[in-house]
Amino acid sequence: MASSFGLGHIPRALWKSDAGAGTFGAGLGAAIGAVLLATRAPWWVTLLAALAATAASLWSAVPFAVGGADPGWVCMDETAGTLLALIGLQGWPWVVALVVARLADIFKVLPGVHRAEALPGALGVTADDLVAGLYGLAAGWLLAIVL
């Protein structure tokens, strides 16, 4: 569960490193979001999916988040953050939200992202991705308003 159903282990199998595992977890969030978009699910279904992924991340990361650890292969947090970014969006705003959330998580330069990661245990593992997802959501909604 913590590895987004095994997706977080793909980079180690392919290139002997955990680098990029978070992007595989975000890919799962994007895939779920795309299915919900294609099926014209109401916005609250994406919200429920984001809440479920957040709960799964908080629960499944506990045994691996000892002493401030955040193993690279643990990527359910990226799945949750990505789903959060996509709530109620479609078209270009959906794409922008996805990209902004991923970049905010990778570079951690936007206010609050790095600080959220410093929270203890599974909360720190998950919170930075949720903050990054909120940046993505805000960017997507701003673009949706402009368009």
Low-pLDDT ranges = none
User: Cα-atom Rg, whole angstroms?
Assistant: 14 Å
The percent range for helix content is: 55-70%
Separation of the first and last Cα atoms: 38 Å
Give the overall pLDDT as a whole number: 97
**Number of β-strand runs:** 0
Which geometry do the CA atoms define? globular
Tell me the structural class: mainly alpha
Largest sheet: none
User: Topology as H/E string?
Assistant: HHHHHHH
This entry's quaternary arrangement is single chain
Strand-residue proportion: under 5%
Domain count, please report it: 1
Number of helices: 7
Describe the structure.
The chain is an all-alpha fold and 147 residues long. The chain has one domain. The protein is 68% helix and 0% strand. The chain has helices at residues 10-15, 21-38, 43-60, 76-85, 91-107, 113-117, 121-146. α2 (21-38) crosses α4 (76-85). The chain is globular, with a radius of gyration of 14 Å. The model has no long low-confidence stretch (mean pLDDT 97).
Task: Summarize the topology.
Elements: H1 10-15, H2 21-38, H3 43-60, H4 76-85, H5 91-107, H6 113-117, H7 121-146
Helix pairs in contact: 2-3, 2-4, 3-4, 3-7, 4-5, 4-7, 5-7
